[in-house]
Amino acid sequence: MEQFLNTYLYNPTVGKLVAVIAGILLVVVLVRFVQKVLGRRVASTEVRYRARKFVSFAGYFVSILVITVVFSDKLGGVTVALGVAGAGIAFALQEVIASVAGWLAISFAHFYNTGDRVQLGGIKGDVIDIGILRTTLMEVGQWVDGDLYNGRVVRIANSFVFKEPVFNYSGEFPFLWDEIKVPVRYGGDVSLAKQILSDVAEEVVGAYTDQVQAAWDHLVRSYLIENAQIQPMVTLVATDNWMEFTLRYVVNFKERRRVKDLLFARILEEFAKSGDSVEFASTTFELTMTPDFNVRLVDYLKGKKEGADKKE
């Protein structure tokens, strides 16, 4: 019994392990307590998310610090062993290491932040969480038309940022250029059609102009980029079937579907008010030459008469 106590209970290494376990448990309890308090006290979703993440990372740091302090006198003896094992671990966990490096790149290079709409390898969605190993997206699109959620939550390894392009729809410039095509029948008033489209665009998306201009000016100052027209623009192309007007405008990345619905609704109303001056077009076919018809009714009438005679 005394030997058992001397070997295990009074062993300095066992005591340090117990101290480490107790310290880590204390850190876990404190982290969860602080996160619960933040969940109750902080109203903003974004601030609450960032605060909870910060507390989690602080807990990891304190846990590593506890282990380092407790075993500080033992670290020198295991340096060589750790160096030898490090190469094997690095090879076996290369994807994990790349994901951690990707997380560092995302955090410090600002590839994207939570709340941004991004496209990673053909998967488009809103970033709802950035972990050390994976980024979590709430997916949009696929079988759902428009930029609407489809209900799938997608997790992508952070190492992806080193392998494929990262498309950010809302980073430093949270607006997108969008356009709609409006077919108008030939013979309509071209000037009136252009005026209607311009007025409707100004009514629906004109409120964005000041915000877009400020964001675009910041982008021009930060990068080598040409200036661009942010006001709505209407262009015309003549096709075989109709006059095709294209309305180009700038819209917030989260409101493309709603704004497009408003634009079409108002355009329909204004076209209806114009009477026959401006009308929507549909696919039409024009016969440019009528073929000759040669119809013989003699045999048909003769056969019909013979049939009547047989019945009598």
Polypeptide structure, described:
- The mean pLDDT is 76.
- The chain is built from nine helices and eight strands.
- α2 runs antiparallel to α3.
- Strands 4-3-2-1-5 form a five-stranded antiparallel β-sheet. Strands 6-8-7 form a three-stranded antiparallel β-sheet.
- The radius of gyration is 35 Å and the shape is elongated.
- The chain folds into three domains: 2-74; 98-168, SH3 type barrels; 175-273, Alpha-Beta Plaits, CATH 3.30.70.
- The chain is 50% helix and 18% strand.
- By secondary structure, it is α+β, with helices and mostly antiparallel strands.
What's this model, at a glance?
The chain has 312 residues and is an alpha+beta fold. 50% of the residues lie in helices and 18% in strands.
SSE layout and pairing:
Blueprint: H1 2-9, H2 12-41, H3 45-70, H4 79-92, H5 94-109, E1 117-120, E2 123-130, E3 134-140, E4 149-157, E5 166-168, E6 175-184, H6 190-205, H7 209-222, E7 233-238, E8 243-252, H8 256-273, H9 298-311
Antiparallel strand pairs: 1-2, 1-5, 2-3, 3-4, 6-8, 7-8
For the largest beta-sheet, the strand count, sense and barrel status come to: 5 strands, antiparallel
Number of strands: 8
The CATH architecture classification of the largest domain is: 2-Layer Sandwich
Rounded mean pLDDT is 76
| Major beta sheet, strand line-up | 4-3-2-1-5
Domain module tally:
3
Strand content: 15-25%
Pick out the low-confidence regions. Answer: none
* Number of separate helices: 9
User: So what's the CATH class of the largest domain?
Assistant: Alpha Beta
What is the CATH topology classification name of the largest domain?
Answer: Alpha-Beta Plaits
